[in-house]
Amino acid sequence: MLTLAILGFLAERPMHAYELRRHISELIGHNRPVSDGALYPAINRLSQAGHLEKQAEPGDGAPARQVLRLTGSGRAELVRRLAEPKQSEITSGAEFFTLLAFLSHLPGADRQAELLRRRLEFLTQPASFFSGDSGPVRISEAADRYRRGMLVMARATRRAEVAWLEETLGELRAEGEAEGEADA
Questions:
Q1: Mapping DSSP to helix (H, G, I), strand (E, B) and coil, where does residue 156 land?
Q2: What's the pTM value of the predicted model, to 2 decimals?
Q3: DSSP state letters, 43-96
């Protein structure tokens, strides 16, 4: 997800690596802190692949700083990653939220909707943190109050996300219909 975050933020505007790190930390750092030991090798890999370029910018009385810019190849890679997410990027909440943060960069309401439908399909399958002999444990079956609390919070979060996904899919459908009528 670090690569996706780098590509996504640089698609919005060029920035220095320290600024990019701050933005990435705000997005995903609460789950996994972003270290220089992870960020700079990722930047170098993307640069070597031709997805971004570094340009020295003179500092005011300080050494030159590197400004990172996304290339055409980098934009294409961002779109590819958004259009073809791994299954774990759909099923993991943190990974999905990183996809969601940059989904507006995926052209076409229909393509955006497809990704949201995949997440919705995942969320509407029976699931639980815990399973018993007969499958997922229901809230009423959790004997431990803390595990019951996990289930209560997970259910509320899932319901809120499903409601948002359904609402947004409806909006995308309406936008697609309006675009179709405008083309006719």
A1: helix
A2: 0.83
A3: HHHHHHTTSEEEEEE--SSS--EEEEEE-HHHHHHHHHHHHS--HHHHH-HHHH
At 137 the pLDDT is: 63
Mean pLDDT of 4-15: 96
Residue 124, SS3 per DSSP: coil
pLDDT bucket at 132, cuts 50 / 70 / 90: low
Instruction: Assign 3-class secondary structure to 11-49.
Output: HHCCEEHHHHHHHHHHHHCCCCCCCHHHHHHHHHHHHHC
Q: For 2-79, CATH number?
A: 1.10.10.10
Start-to-end CA distance of the chain, whole Å, equals 40
Other beta carbons less than 10 A from residue 2's beta carbon: 16
Q: What is the pLDDT of residue 65?
A: 82
Sorted by where each begins, the domain ranges of the chain are: 2-79, 108-183
* Token pair of 105 as six digits: 């960069």
How far from the centroid of its chain's Cα atoms is residue 68's Cα?
20
Asked if residues 50 and 73 have their Cβ atoms less than 8 Å apart, the reply is: yes
